Amino acid sequence: MKIIQKLTEINHFYYNSQMTKRLDMRVQSFFILVVITVVAGCSGITVSQDYDKDVDFSAFKTFAWKVDPDARQDDEAEMSPLVATRVRNAIERELRAKGIVYSEMSPDIQIDYNLKVESKISSSNVGTTIGFGTGGYGHIGGVVISTAPDIRQYDEGTLFIDFYTSDDLKLVWRGISSQVIDKHDEPDKVTQQINLNVQKILEQFPPNDRAAR
Length: 213
What we know:
Elements: H1 2-42, E1 45-51, E2 62-65, H2 81-97, E3 101-102, E4 109-124, E5 130-134, E6 140-145, E7 150-165, E8 171-181, H3 187-202, H4 208-211
Parallel strand pairs: 2-3, 2-4
Antiparallel strand pairs: 1-8, 4-7, 5-6, 7-8
Helix pairs in contact: 2-3
């Protein structure tokens, strides 16, 4: 009888232990998913546009650079000649897909671009420290979220693309993108970020309410 009772206790202990492990794994998986979701959200690109509603953008078929790339000199490190070349290549590729090609002979529009990088600080009343565990004999422990302030410093890159009419150099369209960036990314990552930002900006062009003209 005692042997049967002992075996029953061992079986219950094993069962509770396995249940606790499975619950622990579920809790850990949940918080890993939360972290991944937060990180993915922070890496998103925000775009906007502004434009002259009296302009027929569908008439634009050719473009040139407002500032000669060879003569362009920027003191800010973020718009180095290497970065500027990536931006121009991305713009030219996206516009070509829209039927707008580069031409120095009487272009319909002239395009300029600029990149600004700002250091920013974000804070939250709830920190990101998360603790969880199990109690003795298979009992589930509590989940603790720290309420200490969470302060982060990060760099935000803002890319501007401007369209000017060639005859009077009037600004008629501006597209903007913003994204959290890392100044020390590898060249391939920088190229990928620039290509994606330019793509997102020019997806807005031509403006929807004038595209059918």
